[in-house]
## 1
Amino acid sequence: MDVAEFRRRGKEMVDYVADYLENIEQRPVYPDVEPGYLRSMIPAEPPLEAELYEDVLRDVERVIMPGITHWHSPYFYAYFPAASSFPAMLADMLCEAIGCIGFSWAASPACTELETVMLDWLGKMLQLPEDFIAGTHGQGGGVIQGTASEATLVALLAARCKAVRLVQASDPKISEADIISKLVAYTSDQSHSSVERAGLIGGVKMKKVPTDQHYAIKGDVLRNMLEEDKAAGLIPFYLCSTLGTTPSCAFDPIAELGPICNAEKIWMHIDAAYAGSAFICPEFRPLLNGIEFADSFNFNPHKWLLINFDCSTMWVKKRSDLIGAFKMDPLYLTHENQESGLVTDYRHWQIPLGRRFRSLKMWFVFRMYGLTGLQAHIRKQVGLAKEFESLVRADKRFEICAEVIMGLVCFRLKGSNKLNEVLLKNINHTRRIHLVPCQLSGRFVLRFAVCARTTESRHIQEAWQLITQLTYELLQEQPL
Ligand SMILES: *Cc1c(COP(=O)(O)O)cnc(C)c1O
């Protein structure tokens, strides 16, 4: 493909993408394929000779589209949203064209510098404390990680390194392995599975703090666990608290947990993967009160802030905590400005070396929507969730299972878990809408998350109509 053909094909691809998104509602939201469906549809061997572009594109419709779960369909209500917008897609095209690997300042100064400034912009939209803003002289600042899972792990590894140094400072004879075997990290029984996984990867014990009736950690429960563990000779060093848990969008009281962590020299990381985006709205910002006690904070603009995957923004109060934990300086990566104190080398802030120019899509989206446009998006989706909630509440056969604060509604039929499992299966089998379940207090619960940017009231009404129709049919067969 030469540049002339690229010019033509590129325009056709934009048309294909625009048509796809414009007509996405007409496709079944969930695919009708069996595991292994794809292998038989394409050759077992790679092509020896070049093929025609038309043939490749034809196979997109034949092979790929039948196996796609359409996350941007307004009938998609599963998991949490995957953000998407046209400005972000255009910026990503440019990112691919520049194609730099921005591991250091010198590897592409704009890639690094725009990222630092975009994290400052976003930090200001969230009204983060000054400590988290890089500015020109700050000790803190932000970085784009690929996912919230990586942010949780990076924070845990930095905390582990800091804890080891702290213990060794008072007792130089104790070995690192000895200290690590005594370290304990904490999170709640509602936190995302990636937190437990960070403990496994980081080789430290991870304890789950039981939550209260609101699915949140209580300060005194945490304090008791810490006292017991310290009395047993263990060393508490890390807490990952959640703002907006995955099962039910519950919020840990970070203003209560933060002072406990600070007093015990425990690193507090906050995972707000989904809910973080909503803190740009003043009415949701109080849920972030207590952020001043945190050492690190992360959320996914790629979930709810109209910036396509991947873009998981993480801030730290002391960037030296991250850089100090993972620094490596082979000669081929050093550059003449790195000791100037004026540049950031993001390779020290993350696990991989390579990184894409992801701040471009933040810049495009922030400028094309403005803060008010982004706030309007959040508020609209919360409004749609409230609309769904009132439909559920008006039907006595159903119950709401957790307070609806943002764009997630947890609900179930009053009755057995089995009944709800069958209802969900029937819903998903229609392929007209798509939902996933969660478990809350031992009960099987349906999660309805407002996801696609183009979801409107009529989609919510249609979804509810389908659910009630299937409920009617189900109850004919198996009464409550
Ligand atoms: C979605 C989610 C995650 C995982 O996000 P990734 O970016 O895919 O790692 C972590 N924590 C919470 C609370 C989430 O909702």
## 2
Amino acid sequence: MSDIRTQTINGLEVHIDRSLCIGSGNCVNLAPEVFTIRQDAIVDFKDEVDDSIDASRLVESCQICPVDALLVYDGDEQIVP
Ligand code: SF4
């Protein structure tokens, strides 16, 4: 069952597919102002996301997901994965 969270951050639309996340923490380490690990050991957006994060670091933090649980769209174009 899919469990998708979506937020627009610094002009990019970011999707978390929580059904895929394995809780590795890679994205949290790179973008701690955006992502957090919840009590179920799965990632989620922070309650208050810092929208001013550098876009390239945000994209990189999604690219390093080992299971492609993080998708990024720039307008109509999917840029991650
Ligand atoms: S990098 Fe991917 S698998 Fe690891 S916590 Fe983030 S979303 Fe989950």
